[in-house]
Amino acid sequence: FSANLFEAFTLATLIYFTLNMSLMLLMRVVEKKVAVPGLISVGGK
Against a cut of 0.90, is the pTM above it? Predict the structure, then answer.
Protein backbone atom coordinates (compact mmCIF):
# COMPACT_ATOMS: atom_id res chain seq x y z
CA PHE A 1 0.00 0.00 0.00
CA SER A 2 1.43 3.32 -1.02
CA ALA A 3 0.35 6.93 -0.76
CA ASN A 4 0.03 7.08 -4.55
CA LEU A 5 -2.66 4.41 -4.48
CA PHE A 6 -4.60 6.30 -1.81
CA GLU A 7 -4.33 9.53 -3.81
CA ALA A 8 -5.52 7.79 -6.96
CA PHE A 9 -8.59 6.35 -5.23
CA THR A 10 -9.32 9.72 -3.62
CA LEU A 11 -9.11 11.48 -6.98
CA ALA A 12 -11.28 8.82 -8.63
CA THR A 13 -13.86 9.22 -5.87
CA LEU A 14 -13.93 12.99 -6.26
CA ILE A 15 -14.29 12.73 -10.04
CA TYR A 16 -17.08 10.16 -9.66
CA PHE A 17 -18.91 12.32 -7.12
CA THR A 18 -18.57 15.46 -9.26
CA LEU A 19 -19.82 13.72 -12.40
CA ASN A 20 -22.76 12.14 -10.60
CA MET A 21 -23.86 15.38 -8.96
CA SER A 22 -23.63 17.37 -12.20
CA LEU A 23 -25.52 14.69 -14.15
CA MET A 24 -28.17 14.52 -11.44
CA LEU A 25 -28.72 18.28 -11.60
CA LEU A 26 -28.72 18.26 -15.41
CA MET A 27 -31.28 15.45 -15.55
CA ARG A 28 -33.48 17.26 -13.02
CA VAL A 29 -33.59 20.24 -15.42
CA VAL A 30 -34.25 17.98 -18.43
CA GLU A 31 -37.08 16.18 -16.61
CA LYS A 32 -38.77 19.49 -15.80
CA LYS A 33 -38.47 20.69 -19.41
CA VAL A 34 -39.88 17.54 -21.05
CA ALA A 35 -42.51 16.68 -18.43
CA VAL A 36 -45.92 15.78 -19.85
CA PRO A 37 -48.67 17.43 -17.78
CA GLY A 38 -50.94 14.87 -16.13
CA LEU A 39 -48.67 11.92 -16.85
CA ILE A 40 -47.25 11.67 -13.35
CA SER A 41 -49.89 11.51 -10.64
CA VAL A 42 -49.40 13.23 -7.32
CA GLY A 43 -50.19 11.11 -4.30
CA GLY A 44 -51.60 7.62 -4.18
CA LYS A 45 -55.10 6.18 -4.01
Answer: no
